[in-house]
Amino acid sequence: MGHMDETTTPETSEVTDVLTTPEEWRRFLERYDERYMKSEASDQELVDLLDEDQLDLLEEDGRLEQWLGEAPAREEELAAAEERLGVRFPPSLRGFFLASNGWKRVKGWVDLVQPCGEVAWMRDSEAGPGLIEIYGEDPDNDDYVQLFRRSVEVAAGEDLWLLDPTDAGPDGEWAAYLFTPKYGDLQEFSSFSELFHDGYEDMEDDE
Q1: 57: burial class by Cβ within 10 Å (0-12, 13-18, 19+)?
Q2: Which helix (H) or strand (E) element contains residue 121?
Q3: In this structure, are residues 204 and 198 in contact, taking their beta carbons and an 8 Å threshold?
Q4: Distance CA 167, CA 6 (A)
Q5: Bridge partner list, 186
Q6: Quick one: pLDDT at residue 116?
Q7: What are the start-end ranges of the H helices in 51-158?
Q8: Residue range 102-146, pLDDT digits in tens
Q9: Which of 132, 185, 191, 149 is nearest to 167 (CA)?
Q10: Is 102 exposed, middle or buried (0-12, 13-18, 19+ CB in 10 A)?
Q11: What are phi and psi of 188, to 5 degrees?
């Protein structure tokens, strides 16, 4: 099991601006979805999500115009989620929810980014308590356990996306982490936006 001093900061192929507005997120998510359809989606996913004309367009390397994300969250939904958790979400996460309240097609071993109403403290999430217990058995993992206890889990699956509200930058963005329980690997990012961009760039690399 890894220790916190082994946390890695991934190398990025380009410097990307933090996405904070719903408009910026919508443009990015359209590109992300198109990239996902071309490089990651299974045949069954494509059949479930696209009609015959869209499948032909994708096959011809054309541009998908249809929005495949979720409906935007309403401000009152965001406010209710923030009140429930006792925090105000960082700008990039707020902008994301106001563009798409959740996301089902994520690069890697994350099943979905939760809608704002289902975002939870990791200590209260489905996987969190068990991971806290396992890591808590080794005193060397105390930094991991403390991070898990104070983090918000925004995406789940075999891997998890975590945001640490106690580690905020001058722009209000929280430190973000991709945690891979299978390997005990923790990658740190400067924001939720950068975490999402990392997956997009990975898909470019796979082509």
Answers
A1: middle
A2: strand 120-121
A3: no
A4: 18
A5: 179
A6: 97
A7: 52-59, 75-85, 91-99, 128-136, 142-150
A8: 998 777 788 889 999 999 999 999 999 999 999 999 998 899 999
A9: 191
A10: buried
A11: -100, 140
Encoding tokens for residue 202? 């990975």
Cα 122 to Cα 14, 47, 145, 161, 179, distances in angstroms: 30, 34, 10, 10, 12
Nearest to 147 by CA among 108, 117, 192, 177: 177
Listed in sequence order, the residues at least 6 apart from 183 whose beta carbon sits closer than 8 Å to its beta carbon are 2
Of 186, 135, 131, whose CA–CA distance to 164 is shortest? Answer: 186
Q: Are 173 and 189 in contact (CB under 8 A)?
A: no
In the predicted model, is pLDDT for residue 147 greater than 50? yes
Residue 183, both tokens: 């390997």
d(CA 42, CA 148): 32
Q: Which residue has the tokens 């905020």?
A: 168
Amino acid at 83: E
CB atoms within 10 A of CB 176: 27
Q: Please, are residues 177 and 167 in contact by the beta-carbon 8 Å criterion? A: no
pLDDT the model gives residue 64: 63
Whole-number Cα distances in Å, 44 to 37, 51, 55, 160:
11, 12, 12, 24
pLDDT at 104: 83
Classify 106 as helix, strand or coil.
Answer: coil
Residue 203's pLDDT band (cuts 50, 70, 90): low
* Tokens of residue 199, six digits: 């997956």
